[in-house]
Structure formats: C-alpha cells, structure tokens
Amino acid sequence: MGRHVGIVGVGQTHHARRRTDVSQAGLVREAVDRALADAKLSMEDIDTVVVATGPVLFAAVNQPEKWVVDAIGAQGKSVVRLTSGGGAGFAGALAGYYQVAGGFSERTLVVAYDKLSEGQLQYSISTLYDPFWGREFAVGIMGFSAAYWRARMDVLGHTEEAAAMVAAKNRKNAIANPYAHVKKEVSVEDVLNSKPLCWPIKLLDVPPISDGAAAIVLSSEKMAHHSTSRPAWIRGMAYCCEADNAPERSLMLSEPLAIASRQVYRAAGITNPRRQFDVVEVQEPYSCFELNYYESLGLCPPGQAAELMASGATQLDGDIPVNPSGGCMGANPIGAVGVIRLIEAATQVMGKNESHQIKDAKTALVQSGGGWANLRGCAVLSA
Amino acid sequence: MFSAPDSYPIDLPTFHSEINLPYTLTPGRAAGTFLAEVKNRRIVASRFASGQVVAPAQDFSSTGGEEPEAFVEAPHTGVLTAFTRVDGQVIGFIRLDGCDNDFPHRILAELDDLSIGQRVEAAWDDSVEQSILAVKGFKPAPDAPLGTVKPLETMEEPLGVIPYAMKLDYEHAYGPYYGRMFDEIRENGRFMGVRSPGSDVALLPPREIDDVAHSRTGTWKACEDTGTIRGCSIINMEVYGQTRKVPYVYAEIVLDGASTRMIHVIEIDSLEEAKEKIKPGTRVRAVWTQGERKGRVSDIERFEVIEE
C-alpha cells in the first residue's frame, strides 16, 4: 500500500452548453484557479500536474496539455496528459493518486475538461469503433447504450419507467447545483413521452452537451493540513478495462466495474455498500446507466435496480442518496465528469457540498467510466 | 505470435477510411480580438505587467500564466529570426518590433535572399478576414523604420466562434486474419471466423488469440447468413456522418456458428411496429448488396427479420 492521499481542494467551472468567451485553455484556467484557491495554495505549491480530456477529435487540438500548461502557469512542472473516453477525468485522478500515494509528489493538481460545443460529439465517438468492423454503422455511444439497455429490460427488468425515475430524480437534484446548466424539473411521464432518439433512450433520458472543466488538488497526509482540517481521504480507487466484442462478454453487467468495486471495497473495508455509504455519485450519461450501477456496485442484487429506484432509497431523503448533485443530467462536459463526480463526493464528506449536503455524510462512493461497460472505475472517499 | 515467413509479402492492399469533421472552435478573448481586428489591418498583441509584449495576442503569459494587463497594437515590421522552406514555400519566425516573442508565418521571398536578423514587413491580403492569413506573409523590407507598440483605445468585439474542418485519411493494414475474412466476403460472399480453442463456435471477426482462454485460436469456419439479435435500439435521431435514413434499427447480431456479435442495421417502416417486432432473440437474415462486393461489412446491405 502507498501513502494516504486526500482531496484538499476542488474547483469547477459554471458549466454551459457553449462558452464562446473562453478558449479550451481559458476554461481550464477557471477550474484550476478555483481549486487552488479552495486549497489555499498557489501553483508554486504544486509538484505535478495531470491534464485529462476526452478524445482529441472532440475539439481538434492534439496535445492540448502544452496549451493548458501555459494557461495555468505550470511551465516546467512534471505533466502527464491522459485520455480515456468518458472516464478520462477519473483515470486522470487515478494517475494523480498513484503519484502522491507512491511518494513521488506531495501535491498533485488534476484538471479535466472538454469543450464539447466545438465538435461533432456522436460522430467523434463512433471513431472509437473498429474501422473495419462496425464503425460504418455506429451511432456514437447512444446506439449501443440503448441496445444494451434493451437487452437488460427483458432479463433484469430495467424498465423505461425505472430509467425515467432516474432522469426525473437527477434533473430535480440538479436545480440546486450552482454549476449545472440544465435546471428544469420534469415528471416521469414527461420523460416517457419525450422524443425517442435511440429507443428505448428518449430525449429526457439524455444529459446535455456541455463545455466545462474541473480540478482537484491531491495531497499527502503530511501536507494536507495546510489546506484543510478535513480532507476527503481516498480509501480505495480502481479503473478497469476490457475490449469490445470479446466472446462471452455479458450485456447484462459490466465486468470491469464488478472487478474494480471488489478491489476498492476490499481496500476500503466495505462489506455492505448499501449500509456503509452515506452518499453515492455516479456518471450516468443516460438514465439507464444508473440502474446498472446500482447492481454492479452492490447497492442491490442483480434484477432489483428498478425496485430500488421505485423504493425512493436513492432519492435525497432516502437511505442511500445517489447523485444529489444531479449527476450528468445537470451538466455533461464528458472528459471532466469523472473529476466532477469526485468533487461532489469529496465535498459531501468534507461537509461543504454546494448542491445538497447530505447530513453527517462520512463515507462516499464515486463511480465513473467510459463506453457502455468496458472502461469502469470507482473510488471510496471518507472524512 | 503469428510469424510470417521471409517470403511473405509486406506491401499489401490497405483498407481506406476517412474521418471528416466540421468544428466551431472558440478562440477565447485574446485570439478572438486578434482575429476580429485583422480586417482593420491591426496586429493585436498582449502586454503583460512584466512589460513583455506578445504578438499575436495571448490570454495567458507563457512565463507565469498571468493574464495580460492590456491589448496593444503591434507594428507591422520586425526581424526574421529563423526560416526554412517547406514544399517550395518559405516559412519563417518573425519578431515584431517592440515584441518579446517569435511567431511563424509565410515569408514572401526566395530562400537565397534571406538572412537571420533581416528586416521584414507584413503584406496584407484584402480577400481574407478572421484569419491570421489576412496577413498574407512577411516580405523583406531592409529600409523599414523601427516600429513601435501603440496603445489600442478601441477594439472590435472578440470573435466567439471560428469555423474549422478536418479531413483525415487513413490506410489501415488488414493483417492476416482480417485480410482473409474480407477476401472471403468479397470473393465468396461469406463471413468466416476462427474457432475458439476446443470449440466449434467461431470468433468473428477472426483473431489470433482467444480473448478468454488467451491461447491460439483454431481453424477457420464459415458462419451462416442467419443469426440472432442480442441487443438493438431504434435510431430515430439524425446525427452527423450517418449513412442511413431514420428510423432504422441498430442491432448487435450473433451469426449462427459464431460466439461474438457484429453490428449492423435493419430497415423498418415504423418505430412503433419495430418496438414490437424487433427485440433480443429475434431471428434475422443478411441481405447482400446487389452490386459488386467490395470486401467490407457493408457488402451486407442490411439484415431482415426472418418471418417464422
């Protein structure tokens, strides 16, 4: 085991459908300034930097870290740039965690962003498909996410209504989130009656497309007290991966997430996730994803996600609130989302969440990933 | 690993693929102001608190990351600090008078007539706006007087969005497994996979190593034209780059005789009917194109539901 690592400062932009007043670098700068201020630090105090974004095709700038480093005043520091689809931000945080846990850095700044207003989102995602085998019929991530959901509907009972409840819950929670840009309450019926885009996925099951950045400062135990008396300690963190199209690959569950959660729960001493977590933040690019996470993360047995949703347990006043921030439904700057989920969970256990502070939250679960099921990670944070 | 004999040809036909993408880039305040001002034949620069002047204008200092104290107007004259020739075009670095950085641009002169430190002056292209190419290039100007950086009292609103496009061409190598599969599709109109070790079901597309057993795969096997849907969604939104007209079904299909899924489409008349008729477990059959087969997955035009 490495050294203890805590999140001691957080910052995110006020996300928007389109920010024409700043460049990509300017967007990053806003999040970094906020994170450093929150950690009571300046760039001089930072040893290493991780820059995470989605695929280059999202915004047509290759090696954006060179641009970003100038914009945040981090010239000459050790910089790693990382990309991993929708889980880029989370993977970036894991890279930063390893640096501090391994003793190679006392303080690491992780900044993640995407400026999705600039490119063609679904088409860019389609290029992740094998150019020989499938790309010509790909419909971004939405086509196959909906296909997998359709398969789960029959076997696991992930109904359109259950997913609509997720969408309605998260959209309502986002209203109080100062950083979200979609803030409109919708009913379960509104979701069910919204336009099918890739049925069963309908318009209101889908998050917005956003420009946004998010940053966290990771610190060793030795230096953490300079920033806060109550860091959010990372008790375990993992990010696992598998290829598409392997034989016997299940459409029903995400094996990488199951493996990641097993590792992380062991490290963090979690034996009963439903009871032990006070709050959960998940990356749900479509409402149907959240149902799958309930099962993959062990909040309920397989096949009972719809029941868990209907029981109200994952609502703000339930026993295991999921996405009090509103999740992706409030804002979805894809590459940044993994860090945004970490921020929302960290501020819960630090007692300073700005959307909906869950009373006495001490232990939080974070999930993030890319693809439908093949890049998945989770982390446990506690005060 | 697969080891090819020395006599095996290495210069084989490739699979052509293209990625075409339009963008709406956001330059930010400094570059946006620079681009808006070129129509007034002004070169906008950033002046930082340290006294440094950087042209074209930048939002952040490259030494400490601080924001500029003001935008200023840089002169049109400067010196050449580096040059080379690429495809017959001379490219150079220019340091404008009173500025502290070098930036690249076209040099409108022959390579032999240039020397480092030479005086140059901007030549404008009236037909171009909102681009650094409104300056056509820099031409030698041995007698140009030393220019000065001037304050910029009023300026245009920064441009918020710059249209841009990328077209990327690729020539992918097939490798021996994909090579044979696509040859079989083109020549014989059949999908061939390779057997998993100790099994009669085929991995499709074929591959050298089985993903689960991590051992060498076995012999080749032709899969059927029929198969079963495992997952499907009804595409009802138009997205950039789409080749089919909505609505249609995106389906992940396991061909009979295979263990892995392939992605294809099924044409439908109505969304409501498709919801009922097309689902996991539905049996489908490939419909091959009528024309010449090209050795691509799209040689199957579509799948259709088998009416049983």
UniProtKB/TrEMBL annotation, chain A:
Bilayer-crossing residues are: none
The Thiolase C-terminal domain covers which part of the protein?
Answer: 250-382
UniProt superkingdom? Bacteria
Gene Ontology molecular functions: acetyl-CoA C-acyltransferase activity
Query: What UniProt keywords apply to this chain's record, in alphabetical order?
Result: Acyltransferase, Transferase
Name of the protein in question: Propanoyl-CoA acyltransferase
- Record organism: Sphingobium cupriresistens
TrEMBL record, chain B:
> Do you know which Gene3D superfamilies this protein is assigned to?
6.10.30.10
Q: Which InterPro entries has this protein been placed in?
A: ChsH2_C, NA-bd_OB-fold, Thioester_dehydratase-like
Domain ChsH2 C-terminal OB-fold: residue ranges:
220-288
What Pfam families would the database entry show?
A: OB_ChsH2_C
Q: Which domain of life is it from?
A: Bacteria
Q: What is this protein called?
A: ChsH2 C-terminal OB-fold domain-containing protein
- Species source reads Sphingobium cupriresistens LL01
